[in-house]
Amino acid sequence: MPYLIRDREYLREGSMTEESGLLLATPLQYFSAPDDGLYVDGPAHPRVAVVDFSRGDLKLRGQTRFRPKGVGRTVSCYDLGKQELDADSPIEAFESDTFLRVNPFATVLKTLAFFEGPEVLGRTLDWAFPGSQLLIVPRAGEWQNAFYDRSTGSLQFYYHRASAGHTVYTALSHDIVVHETTHAILDAIAPDLYHASSPQALAIHEAIADVSAITQTLMNEMVVWSVDNISSSGVDAYDALSRIAEEFGTDTRLADGAGFLRRLKNSRHLNPEDGTQDEFGRPNRPDVTDLHALSQVLSGAIYCVFEQRMRATHRRGDSGFGATLDEIVCPAARRVARIVFRALDYMPPGEAGFRDYGRAFVAAAAATYERPQLEQKWLLEEFKRRHIIQEDAELLVAPPALSLEGVDMEALVKDDDVARRLVEANRAALGIARGTAFEVLPRLVASRSLGSKLAKNRKEEVILKVKWLEGETHDLGLGRPSTWQVVHGTTLVVDRETRRVRSCLTTESSAQETSDRRALLTRWMAEGRIRDVAPAPDGLAAPGVGLASTQHGGARLHDSASVLHLSEAPG
């Protein structure tokens, strides 16, 4: 299945990539997957399906035909028509109906396979919405946007006419498609973030989606080889590789003069005493209610770990950047990615903040590699430099004294009563106050690759998550709710064979995070984004009709993550 690995912007005459010297040998690559007999016209598969309909009349524009064993005698494919696509194809060739369907389909499947593989999660994900099929709408309408929508279980990709006259299709941007796919994946891993009232919890969605988009680039040999061997010698490779959505960003940020939507190599921080700005006049300390800007504090810190690992690996090599590609850049990026995304399974449920993610990162690194790793040290340094934490101890959390001796692990996984009794007997260790009602989530089993011999060293981990509600008081004005409920939780990760506790992390809310929640609620109230929603029979608000629902004696936000895509940037 063909897909574009990078935006087409550098192919345009007078593009920003020509000016910066960033070139690419070929934008076209292929993703291969076993033909399990479940691929059909569309393209469609039980996990992912393309629905290419016209926004005006909601009629299907058509489907791309599946050809079993269509290449030679062994390779199945989707029929792209008579026109062959290759590195020299004109830009317009990639705008055909068939390619506009196949490109996002292949990119979504590729991203999903990476996350579910043994190097990262080591388990099959269940979507956060009913059903097993994520829908892709490649031409949802004319708008400068793209987003994941839980209520419809879909990825919506829009298109718009650029100032230079050409059409920009977000479904053809590898960065944007991976970004939106990661929103759906993260929603499957940490669904509470979708209803969060904490700016940092919502910003985690954006940060991880951006890091995921960049990771796919860093691990791609052709892209990194091109940056080193084709692009201008004046290009800062680490800066160039950190840019997201050049085609979309070149047009939407025309007034700024930026040739990208966002850049992960940045100086964003939370230091209230630092009033510096970047080269585009934007403050390095973002407004906490500007969620896309806030996300760059975390994504910038994570990208710095990628860069440190690549530079450290490079120093051990004998030749220049990219000359021994398989031994330097891509493996280094894959090593860090293993920790970055596996940490999502270690992160506690509820409204996790940047520090909660940082603790999960440290725990995931410790569980993956028996000896302390430089990645942990680098993240600690970046978190302190960006004023996410003040001291190392804020991230270095030792597992509590929690004995699992005699616990039947099979019963723990399958039997809710066994899991509930374990939680009840270990309330203090799991951070649950006496008398607080809690919910034990279905246990997960992950088969992960550990250590340096990844292919041979696989261990199973049992993941137990429990969550509960804690109240906060926010004076938001007359007639507005004063009592708000915030979801807290704990994630316990246990080696299935040895019963060793690998990690036990509980959400920790600081006074600053409480203040930030108040700021976000105040802004959204003033902007009219929050309105009362009557609970549905299951106790939740009906999807897509508002942001606030009242239950259990307090107010909670509902579908707050949907606000992320109402700005001018894809979210």
- Beta strands, count: 20
Span of the ends, CA to CA: 26 Å
Q: What is the structural class?
A: alpha+beta
The gyration radius over C-alpha positions equals 23 Å
> Mean pLDDT, rounded to whole units?
86
Principal-axis shape: globular
Kindly describe this structure.
The chain has 571 residues and is of the alpha+beta class. The chain contains 14 helices and 20 strands. It is globular. Mean pLDDT is 86; it is low at 317-324 and 534-546.
What are its keywords?
five-stranded antiparallel sheet, 14 helices, 571 residues, alpha+beta
Question: Care to give the gist of this entry?
Answer:
The protein is α+β, with helices and mostly antiparallel strands and 571 residues long. The chain is 32% helix and 16% strand. It has 14 helices and 20 strands.
Question: How is the secondary structure organized here?
Answer:
Layout: E1 2-4, H1 16-20, E2 28-30, E3 48-50, E4 66-71, E5 75-78, H2 97-116, E6 134-137, E7 146-149, E8 154-157, E9 159-161, E10 167-169, H3 174-189, H4 199-218, H5 221-229, H6 237-240, E11 243-244, H7 246-252, E12 262-263, H8 291-316, H9 329-346, H10 354-368, H11 374-385, H12 409-414, H13 416-425, E13 439-440, E14 444-449, E15 458-473, E16 483-495, E17 501-506, H14 511-526, E18 532-533, E19 548-551, E20 554-557
Parallel strand pairs: 3-6, 6-8, 18-19
Antiparallel strand pairs: 1-2, 4-5, 7-8, 9-10, 11-12, 13-15, 14-15, 15-16, 16-17, 19-20
